């Protein structure tokens, strides 16, 4: 290592290409395996770097270890070997760390189909470095479980996606939202056979609607034939009972879909956000008919900033953005209750940066939009909540609203890795796989199964409590999904790292994946759904 460089390296490094002309590498084209002298310990003491004559071995090690972009940046900052041109195709001027980042990008499904021109444009959009592209892709994988198993607790119906991309649906089917070609309820998980041969990597559920995203960037929709509820007046009655490609999105490579009440949003591979519906009065930055089927680019502040995750609430949208300087959150839509996080209750027609995270020195890595409140997990494991505080859903020990993000102090001893929000309910998953919940206790959806004395109603939880019923399962939880709708009783899914799925809460339509005992409409303790998602 270069001692003079390593002493000045900070713990937080920019991920751009570092240029240094002080060292000439031995290229792989040279046939000599003789060890070459290198100034590995500063100018005063020459040292040896045996692998300098075989940089292909170093590149193989870097890509095999799946180093993250920050690790690669640290290597560049502390050793000249890793920041000199490596003389490898496809770009002989790239450093060893940049080549490793490019190779790691090429392993990703969303990156493989890109042309050389598309890749170059993608790199420039991310900040001009393959390390920044890798950081963008990895951030999206981490917060959305892209290309991993997942479960979605929709309003009355449920979706389960296996690690291989097969889709199972069950529960209410009044609009064909299960995708089986009929309108019959399903009380057990049933595979959507018409998707055979198509690998699904992400799913979203709304009231009577389902959207699925494939590894080829195609979007399939079924259920209600609309992208949002009409705010006033009647809703169209046409339903689609089998998955159909969304034709208006064929020219956009989509990686995520999110369904609000009045609108739908999708996220492209390049980090651009498109919205459908609710365009009257320019509510989402565009002036259109409420049921417009054409996607509209979300303009304004996010036009030139790549987004890694979107989250849709009842009437607002959150976007987790990946800038060269760090992660940030933008919000747009209805500001009632302070759920946009800007310190007011004003609506925003264009995306606006939530500045409070910088004031708190927080790097957001996961964002969740409940019906009326929102939450974020930071890189260091802190949890912030804001918006309507009814039933204690913000976890601050009261029911007050918060118009800017506020750290949940009751979780100060917990390092969070995942958060999920619903209709006045919040769940947090720790790095140890423990689950905490707080908010409205209706429908047994918090997992605590506690009854308020005298009135047979479930207790609301104002501060985070460990879900002991999941702790007793003796499995490490990795994902929680809960119903995010004001019109349906809620249910909750808990997914383990071994691919087991547990369900509790409302189950009157079969949305828990198991039949309930006669006269029961909900389950207070987790029960395994008979499906293996791995």
TrEMBL record:
Q: Which residue intervals define the domain RCC1-like in the entry?
A: 149-481
Q: Where are the RCC repeats?
A: 165-216, 217-270, 271-323, 327-380, 381-432, 433-498, 499-534
Q: Which InterPro entries match?
A: RCC1-like_dom (IPR058923), RCC1/BLIP-II (IPR009091), Reg_chr_condens (IPR000408), Ub_ligase/GEF_domain (IPR051210)
Say if the entry is tagged with keyword Repeat: yes
Q: Which UniProt keywords apply?
A: Repeat
User: Which one Pfam family would you cite for this protein?
Assistant: WD40_RLD
Q: Provide the transmembrane region boundaries.
A: none
Q: Flavoprotein as a keyword? A: no
In its UniProt entry, what is this protein called? RCC1-like domain-containing protein
């Amino acid at each position: 290592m270069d001692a003079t460089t390593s002493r000045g390296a900070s713990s937080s490094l920019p991920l751009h290409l570092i240029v240094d002309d002080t060292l000439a590498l031995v290229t792989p084209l040279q046939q000599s395996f003789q060890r070459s002298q290198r100034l590995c310990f500063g100018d005063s003491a020459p040292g040896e770097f045996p692998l300098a004559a075989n940089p292909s071995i170093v590149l193989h090690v870097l890509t095999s270890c799946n180093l993250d972009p920050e690790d690669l940046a640290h290597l560049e900052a502390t050793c000249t070997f890793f920041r000199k041109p490596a003389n490898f195709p496809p770009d002989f001027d790239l450093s060893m760390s940049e080549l490793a980042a490019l190779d790691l990008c090429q392993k990703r499904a969303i990156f493989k189909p890109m042309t050389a021109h598309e890749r170059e444009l993608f790199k420039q959009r991310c900040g001009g470095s393959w390390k920044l592209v890798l950081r963008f892709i990895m951030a999206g994988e981490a917060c959305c479980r892209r290309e991993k198993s997942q479960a979605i607790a929709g309003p009355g119906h449920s979706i389960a996606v296996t690690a291989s991309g097969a889709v199972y649906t069950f529960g209410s089917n009044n609009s064909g939202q299960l995708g089986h070609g009929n309108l019959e309820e399903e009380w057990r998980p049933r595979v959507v056979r018409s998707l055979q041969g198509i690998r699904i990597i992400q799913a979203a559920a709304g009231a009577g609607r389902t959207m699925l995203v494939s590894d080829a960037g195609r979007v399939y929709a079924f259920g209600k034939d609309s992208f949002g509820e009409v705010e006033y007046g009647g809703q169209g009655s046409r339903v689609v009972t089998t998955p159909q490609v969304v034709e208006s999105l064929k020219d956009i490579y989509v990686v995520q879909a999110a369904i609000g009440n009045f609108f739908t949003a999708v996220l492209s591979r390049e980090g651009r956000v498109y919205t459908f519906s609710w365009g009257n009065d320019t509510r989402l930055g565009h002036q259109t008919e409420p049921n417009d089927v054409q996607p509209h680019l979300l303009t304004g502040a996010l036009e030139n900033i790549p987004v890694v995750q979107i989250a849709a609430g009842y009437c607002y949208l959150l976007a987790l953005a990946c800038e060269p300087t760090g992660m940030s959150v933008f919000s747009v839509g209805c500001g009632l209750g302070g759920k946009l996080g800007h310190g007011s209750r004003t609506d925003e027609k264009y995306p606006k940066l939530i500045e409070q995270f910088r004031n708190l020195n927080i790097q957001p890595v996961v964002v969740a939009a409940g019906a009326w409140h929102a939450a974020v997990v930071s890189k260091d494991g802190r949890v912030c909540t804001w918006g309507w505080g009814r039933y204690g859903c913000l976890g601050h020990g009261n029911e007050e609203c918060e118009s800017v993000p506020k750290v949940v102090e009751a979780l100060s001893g917990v390092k969070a890795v995942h958060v999920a929000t619903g209709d006045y309910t919040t769940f947090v998953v720790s790095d140890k796989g423990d689950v905490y919940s707080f908010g409205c206790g209706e429908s047994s959806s918090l997992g605590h199964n506690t009854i308020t004395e005298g009135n047979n109603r479930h207790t609301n939880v104002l501060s985070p409590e460990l879900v002991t019923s999941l702790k007793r399962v003796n499995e490490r939880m990795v994902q929680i999904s809960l119903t995010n709708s004001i019109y349906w009783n809620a249910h909750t899914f808990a997914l383990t790292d071994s691919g087991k799925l547990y369900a509790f809460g409302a189950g009157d339509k079969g949305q828990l994946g198991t039949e309930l005992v006669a006269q029961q409409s909900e389950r207070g303790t987790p029960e395994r759904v008979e499906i293996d998602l791995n």
